[in-house]
Write a structure and sequence with these properties.
Length: 366
Amino acid sequence: MYTHSSSSSLHFLVLVLISSLIALAQPTLADTYAGTTNAPPPSQVAAKVFPPQTHICKDPATNCFQRNIACPQECPMMKPASARDKGCFIDCNSVSCEAICKNRVPDCTGIGSACYDPRFVGGDGVMFYFHGKTNQTFSLVSDTKFQINARFIGRRPQGRNRDNTWIQALGFMFNSQTFTLAAKKVAQWDDLVDQLVFTYNNQPLTIEEGHLSTWVAPDGQLTVERTSTRNRVLVKLPGITEFYVNVVPVTKEDDRIHNYQIPSDDCFAHLEVQFKFLDLSENVEGVLGQTYRPDFINPVKRGVAMPVMGGEDKFKTSSLLSADCVHCIFSSENSNEETSSLVLDPTMVVDCTSRTSNGFGVVCRR
């Protein structure tokens, strides 16, 4: 027969057992994702190692046809989960048929770049400046299948005989489509605010903020991918071109070094960009495009601190989306015609460890 004391002890043990079972069912502090509806992103699972991505080159016209190229362990993913990590780049036309690791941002010392107070590195490896003029647009590339224009902003400091200019916007024309991207006018720069604006076929375009957020045109031709939460994108037109864009301000340090005399109400937010061209004709024109022609003889003076490329009169357009410069060859009506294409070497890089490189006279610092 149970005593009152025995009954109380049994009741206490039952309560303890029930409490223990409830506690086991609750997520602990270590269960970071317990109780959530979404599984953790694979790239954020601790100690998880993923096999490197691979790519089989299927185009018979490429140098690495039928080769299965694997990404290195240092950059196993083509689109890394973190914007700070390097991505894996596989080019089926590369000489070595090996993947390389690169940051997914413009390389301002690399072939096809246009940065700063516009400093370009041409397809021939020669660095040059093209100043343009404030609030005017110029053709960077004009070819049979597409055209890319740039709008310049700037100001003329007191005592100077020319404008300091920067690229504020790009206008992209291909077939009968148009795309623009531009940096907003900003008084005080804030890294936490997106300063990019877009249009597609003259209509405002919104691309959701967030690393790897992607927009695809209705016809599937053009894609725009954010390579950071904000202010950095990759624009791709398959088989034709792709380019990385970064929005930056003129910093106080830049202003101090170069005496730009930047006003307090405008930090001159501008674009850094690097183009990769996949299909150019032998007649390609434009400030940058002409430097890819095999017959182009670069007129800039080598070995000087600021080699300047002229041609404002040849490449000036009436608007960001016009192909009416003197040397422009793009026409939307003729963009589908077959033309002789250049054999491009996308692996070309520029060594910027000294004032000159490989006889090209590349200058990496002003």
